[in-house]
């Protein structure tokens, strides 16, 4: 990792969730780029190539699953870690997330501190 | 006459212009208030976010700003788990806002009591729970509803028994009380399991329904007991709860429910057997689908279609309900 701050993509259609996640990550020393729907998330993922993406599952235009699959299908982004942020916590939803290529998932309601810990753990593994 | 009409027309014209002006002024006023709120939120958002993270807030907030921070925290609280909400509660306790709101619960005017009860839920301090439980007996329905919603927000397990009693007595709006009890979540289960044996049948029915929504497989034996309850409402709710929990072990008790003398209990038992997929129930369900009254026969046919689609298709011509269930399979 360079001296530059790691860049994290946060995609969620809810302003409050984006605020909560962004605030915690920025306070923890990350740079954050935000998207409000699946299309914007994928565009930013391909343009900015963030170090990690945190994606809501139920987003307008493209779901988190679809964006994850598209990220995995692109040579430039296929190794990008993806965390799914989801209110859907049934086992099938979690399995579907991992099948799409997600590295981890966090269920809502969540703790910003736990989110930061997961991000650190994933980025630390790289 | 013409003069009179002209005067009336002029008066109406003036009245129209005045009304338009009043509406325009009101619109400007509302837009200004919205802008002020948005600006204040933008200014206070970092404070609210810092509070969520447990960071101290420098300086003191004036009371209007404290309320705005409370509103922001209340929005954030939907997405935060209880640990993160606790940080916000300490802030309000230090500000004395919790004590002030608890005092307001004794105000003379109902709207002030209701506002205080509502705000206490957003502040997230468990210290407010006893005062909010006391407000469940408030003479004003609005205050009781606000207290109920706040007890749910606080996840107050100690409020479950009074909430269920108030719900059963019709003292609380059903939707608000149900939502609050569901918000308490699995912590409500010990109280709900006790209430399943309460002497009041409406309390038992409410408890059984909630156990079906919040419980797990370990609740099946108690719910099976309730299938033999003296109240048909409780028996039907117990059957539905067992279906929701997918309690396969309760299948034989549910099959006995198909012989209940009350039709809606039989329908609930049939529906639950369909969900748990009890193949032993197929002959009885087939018989009911052919012979019982409308609602029961329909429930039995649909349950049969879930358990044994090929048998349902084969019997499709034997009753309109079996035909309908077959069509739904397609």
By DSSP, the count of extended strands of chain B is 0
| CA radius of gyration of chain A | 13 Å
Total helix count of chain B? Answer: 19
Proportion of beta-strand residues of chain B? under 5%
Radius of gyration of chain B: 28 Å
Low-confidence regions of chain B: none
Distance between the termini of chain B: 76 Å
DSSP strand (E) fraction of chain A? Answer: 15-25%
The CATH class of chain A turns out to be Alpha Beta
How many structural units, i.e. domains of chain A? 1
Give helix % range of chain A: 40-55%
CATH topology of chain A: Rossmann fold
Question: Biggest β-sheet of chain B, characterized?
Answer: none
By DSSP, the count of extended strands of chain A is: 5
State the CATH class of the domain at 39-162 in chain B. Answer: Mainly Alpha
How would you classify the helix and strand content of chain A by structural class? Answer: alpha/beta
The run of helices and strands of chain B is: HHHHHHHHHHHHHHHHHHH
Rounded mean pLDDT of chain B is: 88
Biggest sheet strand order of chain A reads 2-1-3-4-5
Any overview of this molecule?
The complex is a heterodimer of chains A (126) and B (330). Chain A has a single domain, classed as Response regulator (Rossmann fold). Chain A is 46% helix and 19% strand. Chain A is built from 5 helices and 5 strands. Chain A has helices spanning 15-27, 38-48, 64-73, 91-100, 112-125; strands spanning 7-11, 31-35, 52-56, 82-86, 104-107. In chain A, strands 2-1-3-4-5 form a 5-stranded parallel β-sheet, sandwiched between helices. The relative contact order of chain A is 0.18. Among the domains of chain B are: 39-162, Leucine-rich Repeat Variant, CATH 1.25.10; 228-330, Leucine-rich Repeat Variant, CATH 1.25.10. Chain B is built from 19 helices and no strands. Chain B is an all-alpha fold and 330 residues long. Chain B is extended. Chain B has helices at residues 2-52, 63-77, 82-94, 97-104, 110-123, 129-135, 141-153, 160-168, 174-184, 189-195, 201-214, 220-226, 232-244, 251-257, 263-276, 282-291, 294-307, 309-314, 320-329. Classes of the chains: A alpha/beta (126), B mainly alpha (330). Chain A binds chain B through residues 14, 16-17, 19-20, 23-24, 27, 108-113, and chain B through 45-46, 49-50, 52-53, 75-76, 78-81, 83-84.
């Amino acid at each position: 990792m360079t001296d530059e701050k790691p860049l994290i993509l946060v995609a969620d259609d809810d302003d409050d969730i984006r605020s909560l996640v962004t605030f915690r990550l920025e306070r923890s020393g990350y740079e954050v780029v935000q998207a409000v729907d699946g299309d914007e998330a994928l565009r930013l993922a391909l343009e900015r190539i963030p170090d990690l993406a945190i994606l809501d599952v139920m987003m307008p235009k493209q779901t988190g699953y679809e964006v994850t699959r598209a990220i995995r299908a692109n040579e430039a982004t296929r190794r990008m870690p993806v965390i799914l942020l989801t209110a859907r916590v049934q086992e099938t939803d979690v399995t579907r997330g991992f099948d799409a290529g997600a590295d981890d998932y966090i269920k809502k309601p969540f703790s910003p501190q736990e989110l930061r810990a997961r991000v650190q753990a994933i980025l630390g593994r790289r | 006459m013409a003069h009179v009409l002209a005067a009336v027309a002029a008066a109406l014209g003036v009245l129209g212009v005045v009304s338009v002006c009043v509406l325009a002024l009101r619109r400007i006023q509302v837009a200004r208030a919205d802008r002020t709120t948005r600006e204040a939120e933008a200014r206070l958002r970092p404070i609210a976010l810092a509070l969520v993270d447990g960071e101290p807030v420098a300086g003191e907030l004036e009371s209007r700003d404290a309320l705005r921070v409370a509103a922001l925290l209340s929005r954030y609280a939907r997405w935060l788990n209880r640990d993160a909400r606790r940080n916000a509660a300490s802030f309000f306790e230090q500000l004395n806002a919790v004590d002030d709101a608890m005092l307001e619960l004794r105000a003379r005017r109902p709207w002030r009591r209701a506002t205080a009860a509502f705000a206490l839920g957003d502040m997230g301090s468990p210290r407010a729970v006893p005062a909010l439980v006391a407000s469940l007996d408030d003479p004003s329905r609005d205050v009781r509803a606000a207290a109920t919603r706040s007890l749910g927000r606080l996840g107050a397990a100690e409020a479950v028994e009074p909430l269920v009693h108030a719900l059963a007595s019709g003292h609380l709006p059903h939707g608000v009380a149900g939502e609050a009890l569901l918000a308490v979540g699995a912590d409500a289960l010990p109280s709900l399991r006790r209430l399943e044996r309460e002497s009041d049948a409406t309390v038992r029915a409410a408890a059984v329904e909630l156990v079906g929504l919040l419980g797990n497989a370990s609740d099946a034996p108690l719910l099976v007991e309730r299938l033999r309850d003296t109240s048909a409402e409780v028996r039907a709710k117990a059957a539905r709860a067992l279906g929701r929990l997918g309690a396969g072990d309760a299948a034989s008790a549910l099959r006995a429910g198909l012989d209940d003398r009350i039709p809606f209990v039989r329908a609930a038992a049939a529906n639950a057997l369909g969900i748990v997929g009890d193949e032993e129930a197929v002959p009885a369900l087939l018989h009911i689908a052919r012979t019982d009254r409308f609602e029961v026969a329909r429930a039995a046919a649909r349950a049969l279609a879930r358990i044994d689609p090929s048998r349902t298709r084969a019997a499709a011509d034997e009753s309109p309900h079996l035909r309908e269930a077959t069509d739904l399979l397609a």
